């Protein structure tokens, strides 16, 4: 298969990991893979399976390679019967430490205690030491009219360290632990992975923070990673470089320019360019230089999505002074001296503000660098809910119950450290920044993804057919609007980046950010799937970037990872965790698995594992508790979105691990439905036993509309099940469901003996994908016509075409679509992509007046 770079090819030697799908039967377990440049040169790789087809052949693989800075623009990944065995990286796992030698750098990790990175060395020379995880909490007390705030740092305590993967190209180490404030009930667990690649000097860090505190009293002021770089030389040869909006800005600890020696005979220009002054300073110049102030502390703070500042001070206890201000720092800092130093960077630095990079005590032997995922210069992390009440009737919040707890949510960030034996030139630091902010990723061509049939049901774009080209234009307009809207509305920040809003308010020219269930989207009606299918069919990097951010956010912040709701997610709300509905539909694996398969990201793999048994949590929190009080059944489940979400979780676990227990869970529910007169149209609510996975029939036409069945990713997982499991009756049940949605009210009543009618089948556009499936299987042009009408007629689609913006003047000039809701756009795009694949040949000319 052909592989190309999603972004530009890496500018320096880089460790790269990526995933690819395989058609059924194409890759067997005994096969090997080789990576070949377009020149024919082979590149050493490490490969492993990440998913399987039911026949035992491999469905997805992950690969890792080290790519040099003069990399090819394209590669071929080939299957070979010749087993290749390369020597693994050197990893020494002892009782107290783990030592990893990349060939260019040696990293020693502690397995217990509060210091994770014991040392980083190159050629036996120490470059850094004492790397640890830190958190800062704030305590608030009020005495009369006096408000007192105090902060305290808590170093992370290591609980376990595991070498997860070791091979010839890369080593992955997983670390778990927690920060424990003085109040033991307010623990802050963490999961950190360190990635090291052969013959490189870089550590990639994936940091996950879990919240396990009391939102009313537990305030977090800072969160980050600290390391002590080994910096040598005179103060004037110790530098800090930071990347700004475009270039690099440098400052020394001590200027060589003085009042008398302006320019310092050309040395000042070299110094500010970041060069080490090799020659000894002339005595009269030196006498003046050593009188200059020594600046020990520097930091760049991104306090909003549109502002950062670079400040410095001489020492603790003295004032910070402004150096410069900018809009969006690219989040890389180097601190070093005469024998090199360390560069540190945070991915999505400005997008996930308030973030910061800081160096302290630069001129001393006790220098420290801190990568702040949440900068103490910002406000506290405020997990308190926005209201003391729920607002069910007026603002579409889920239940009267107040379950607005953040206990158990998480956030994942990515960071980098790189050791240097000499200071990098500005151009090199620029290149490093490019690679860290847009990590190199090899991807397949859309046609290849399509041919493997491993990524669901979607269509390749067709611009030759005028009607199809017109629809492609609408799909592009929908994505482009949200891409711009993220920036226009500044949907950024540590806890917000990756999510979008639910419903627009054209009167205020503002989204309903303050109105209960109409604020943050939280995966409602599966925008994640819309974006991932859009990426597969186009290969566009801007779509990937948005899908990546949404996956990172929704799989962490909108989902519970510990506590009573573990495995479930929170429905849409003003607070991401604010709604009383905690359900499997929000956290289901199908929303996030493609990011894992494409990038091999182990944190996302953890999340897929976390939800494999999410149905167990419904025993304590019945999703249908309002309509079906406790009865003889342990809990209840709608065939969709509840059971469909369980299907997504089980299917993901089965394809990744081949554990037949999860296949059997799927088959249990499928067989239960097959026994009923209305099959998939039964219920839609059932009694459910998580221990046995059985669905118990409660009658038909009961509480829970059929639009809820198909609007949350059920068609996507059910079609994938049908394709993989080759169950003809299941396929027929999908056809029946899609066909039924296309019937008139009279036909529905006739087919169901009066039990089912239009009043149970709201939002028919949501079922267009199912209708397309039915029309394709039946080869029925009249069904296809009715399906396209659901998508093209604005009365049923609620998506007036063409999708166009208009400019209005409010507090600023705003570009808006007055009728927009993320629910309808997500479903319209997803169903259109599916319909173009299944019944594209029946597409009528697009009538923009409908």
TrEMBL record:
Residues 439-843 form the PcRGLX/YetA-like C-terminal alpha/alpha toroid domain. Residues 90-433 form the PcRGLX/YetA-like central beta-sandwich domain. Pfam families: PcRGLX_1st, PcRGLX_2nd, PcRGLX_3rd. It comes from Salipaludibacillus neizhouensis. This is Tat pathway signal sequence domain protein. It comes from the Bacteria. Signal peptide: none annotated. Residues 1-78 form the PcRGLX/YetA-like N-terminal RIFT barrel domain. InterPro entries: PcRGLX/YetA-like, PcRGLX/YetA_2nd, PcRGLX/YetA_3rd, PcRGLX_1st.
